[in-house]
Design goal:
Blueprint: H1 16-28, H2 30-42, E1 50-54, H3 60-69, E2 74-79, H4 82-91, E3 98-101, E4 114-120, H5 129-138, E5 140-151, E6 157-158, H6 163-177, H7 187-193, E7 197-208, H8 213-228, H9 234-250, E8 255-265
Parallel strand pairs: 1-2, 1-4, 2-3, 4-5
Antiparallel strand pairs: 5-8, 6-8, 7-8
Helix pairs in contact: 2-3, 6-8, 8-9
Length: about 270
């Protein structure tokens, strides 16, 4: 039986290609792009750095990093999904980025080989996030940075004509899929438990007031899962989605969510 979170076991999901498409759509979203770049610059990522991204997916963040590290830098990514590794290698072709298949709890790299190890919107989807952070710390040099960013579904807010139904769908789906849905706010604790020092927290807010393609996909997946888990029937789910469409046409659509980023230093 596959895990209810399709990003937990991508290669065993019903449609890995759809997950590849979803990550690329999120990558193109302007608000998401601003959140990522703000976090990367706050780590900070500097020219000449050697950087590892754990759970690199299709390589969206790695491609963001290319101009930040410059020609003297080195970028590597690792992901447990062969479908994602294949997509990342294709999309990162010609950039010099090295993408490998591997488990975040057993990284295929030697100790202390990177200036920075980061995981962006990954820890929400793994069974043992502390084990991943400890491995990230292992492959980071002394004085280097370990950086993690995650969304926090406990802060998701959506304007809708039916507030009760919206809470029922958003909260209900999250409870069915994620063991720790409030993942973002736990990040400083994880870094402290991994014995990182000088831990800093940065909070950013995703905001959409136009119903972008990324938000449309996000809400459609929530609606489909609400039906799948028996939270609502198909007609009710469609009525819920239609409410967002109507609000977008009226210029009153609102979807926001906090993204928390934590950075610690390897002593």
């Amino acid at each position: 039986m596959t895990h209810p979170d399709p990003f937990r076991e991508i290669d065993r999901s019903a449609d890995p290609a759809a997950l590849v498409k979803a990550l690329e759509e999120r990558g193109r979203d302007a608000a998401q792009h601003r959140l990522r770049l703000g976090f990367l610059r706050a780590i900070p990522i500097s020219r000449g750095d050697t950087v590892l991204e754990v759970g690199c997916g299709t390589g969206v963040v790695l491609r963001d990093l290319v101009p930040l590290v410059g020609r003297g830098g080195r970028l590597a990514g690792v992901d447990p999904s062969r479908a994602m590794v294949t997509a990342a290698r294709r999309l990162c072709r010609g950039t010099g980025i090295n993408v490998r298949h591997g488990d975040g709890t057993k990284l295929p790299f030697t100790d202390g080989g990177f200036d920075v190890a980061l995981a962006v919107t990954v820890l929400l989807h793994v069974a043992d996030p502390l084990a991943v952070v400890r491995e990230m710390a292992r492959v980071t040099r002394g004085g280097g940075r370990v950086a993690v960013q995650d969304q926090d579904f406990g802060t998701a807010a959506a304007a809708h004509p039916d507030r009760v139904l919206t809470d029922r769908i958003l909260d209900g789906v999250v409870r069915h899929i994620y063991e720790e849905p409030y993942s973002g706010r736990r990040l400083p604790t994880l870094l402290h438990e991994a014995r990182l020092t000088r831990v800093r927290l940065r909070t950013g807010v995703f905001q959409d007031t136009t119903l972008t393609p990324y938000s449309q996909i996000f809400l459609e997946r929530r609606a489909a899962n609400a039906v799948r888990f028996g939270i609502v029937d198909a007609d009710t789910a469609q009525r819920w989605l239609d409410g967002f469409t109507a609000m977008a046409r009226a210029g009153t659509f609102v979807l926001t969510m906090n993204y928390y980023g934590a950075v610690g230093i390897k002593s």
